[in-house]
Amino acid sequence: MSEQKNSPSGDQQSKQSGRRGRRRRGGRSRKPDTNSNWDLSQFEVAPEEGKLRFHDLGLPLPLMRGIADLGFKYCSPIQARSLPFSLRAHDVVGKAQTGTGKTAAFLVTIITELLNHPVVEDEHYAGEARALIIAPTRELVMQIADDARALCKHTELHVHTLVGGMDYDKQKRHLSESQCDILVATPGRLLDFASSRDVYLDRVEILVLDEADRMLDMGFIPQVRRIVRLTPYRENRQTLFFSATFTPEVISLADQWTVDPIHVEIEPENVATDTVDQKVFITSAEEKFRLLYNIIRQDEVESVIVFANRRDQCRRLQEKLQNKGFSVGLLSGDVPQNKRVRTLDDFKSGKLKVLVATDVAGRGIHIDGISHVVNYTLPEESEDYVHRIGRTGRAGKLGTSISFACEDDAFLLEPIQKLLGRKLDCVQPDEALLGKS
């Protein structure tokens, strides 16, 4: 059954009367025109067979300048396949992993639409979002917002974030200070703001649902349904829907929230594996911690993320590693958001050498320079393996992924290898790595 509202008359009338009581957005001086002395001749990209340039898409000049600053020249596969349609206002349903360039794909679409169809400032109210991006975790929201601000650097568009675990009044104050052109939010905090009438979603022009499978896993779909009902009818907005996996439940959601979408699928074996040296150590459950301890002690291990499947496993690993003298942070769903923020900042700065994480928390980690990823337990979903190893080997650098396979989880190797399209080297660890911990 489609996710549709009932007769528009009552809902729309109440929205119009509610708008009359809204505060106009706070005044703020406009940024000077920084694009008057810049043109595409300063960003030359030679045509290359089989590749689509951003130059070929007819993007607005201020956006092209942001793309030039970031050094983007050619579209990634998902960008090349989705942008020609999304830029013409088609809905898109994309199956894509982290690292494929999907964030830039939907941001380029949003920014182009907002620049090409500006609104009259006096008719734009505080908290009235033009584009809405919903993502499952605070970390992913902040990463998307950072990318959006970089692409919007030479525009007058404003990016806002709403996430749980952060100061509500501070986020509310930011909303009142400038237009809400692009709003990136987690479901729970967004509903808080919408319920308090601090955010209005009835004029959303573009809706992006990112990592729908994670939102499903984390139990957010009832909240997302309520949010979608606050936006215009699906025929009156553009919807971009992304998921790493396409279960029947995910497909059902895509059918409900989009209209005649273009389907784009990027296979995960194209993601981040070429720059990652992948190792699998065959070991016993009893030897795992000793092996982990000796790996982390090695000089070449500069920074490492250790993944485990369950939150209790992660907490025990953090405690045991701390007792061995390592600087260790924990990222899991039961850690308060403000603490997760500090932990991630400390890991980025090098204050923490080791980060222990679950898949849900680890999905939002986008940090260049992570030297190693250790899969203390193999993931139960093979797609999560690709997400995990994608935390290393970024920004053109080589990385190392080490997985432990014991008698309890070795059977999980086969679906991972099938997904990757190749066998993984499985070896016994050296005696030195099994020494005393």
UniProtKB/TrEMBL annotation:
Keywords: ATP-binding, Cytoplasm, Helicase, Hydrolase, Nucleotide-binding, RNA-binding
Keyword Nucleotide-binding: yes
Annotated DEAD-box RNA helicase Q domain residues: 52-80
Annotated Polar residues bias: 1-16
EC code: 3.6.4.13
Function: DEAD-box RNA helicase involved in RNA degradation. Has RNA-dependent ATPase activity and unwinds double-stranded RNA.
Protein name: ATP-dependent RNA helicase RhlB
Organism from which the protein derives: Porticoccus litoralis
Gene assigned in the entry: rhlB
